[in-house]
């Protein structure tokens, strides 16, 4: 299992690659059957095609993310990432990312809670 600093580095790398606009680099951080729930509560997207579609849509929408202080959960798997997100230069919105990192160091699950307040 990746240790706390490694899990945080993987989470930071995910958001950096998304900001960089590199779909392939984003997808390679996920386990092949990794799940994405964004917004949380909607059916999960699963697998490489879904991961690629999600990353491409975020990049197409010109999503920019600024991360806050990350917290590694005591379960040795998850990292909570408060962040702000803007789309196409619009106003910042608060959000929380919860990433579950597997033993292989790949993201098994990404859940995003995005606020509507500015």
Automatic annotation (TrEMBL):
Coiled coil: none annotated. Residues 12-105 form the SnoaL-like domain. InterPro entries: NTF2-like_dom_sf, SnoaL-like. This is SnoaL-like domain-containing protein. It comes from Dactylosporangium salmoneum. The lineage of its organism: Bacteria, Bacillati, Actinomycetota, Actinomycetes, Micromonosporales.
């Amino acid at each position: 299992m990746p240790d706390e600093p490694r899990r945080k580095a993987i989470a930071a790398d995910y958001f950096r690659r998304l900001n960089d606009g590199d779909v392939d680099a984003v997808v390679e951080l996920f386990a092949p059957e990794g799940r994405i729930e964004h917004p949380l509560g909607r059916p999960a997207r699963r697998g490489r095609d879904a991961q690629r579609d999600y990353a491409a849509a975020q990049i197409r929408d010109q999503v920019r993310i600024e991360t806050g202080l990350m917290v590694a959960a005591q379960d040795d798997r998850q990292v909570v990432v408060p962040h702000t997100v803007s789309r196409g230069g619009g106003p910042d919105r608060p959000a929380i990312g919860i990433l579950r990192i597997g033993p292989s160091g790949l993201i098994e699950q990404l859940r995003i809670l995005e606020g509507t307040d500015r």
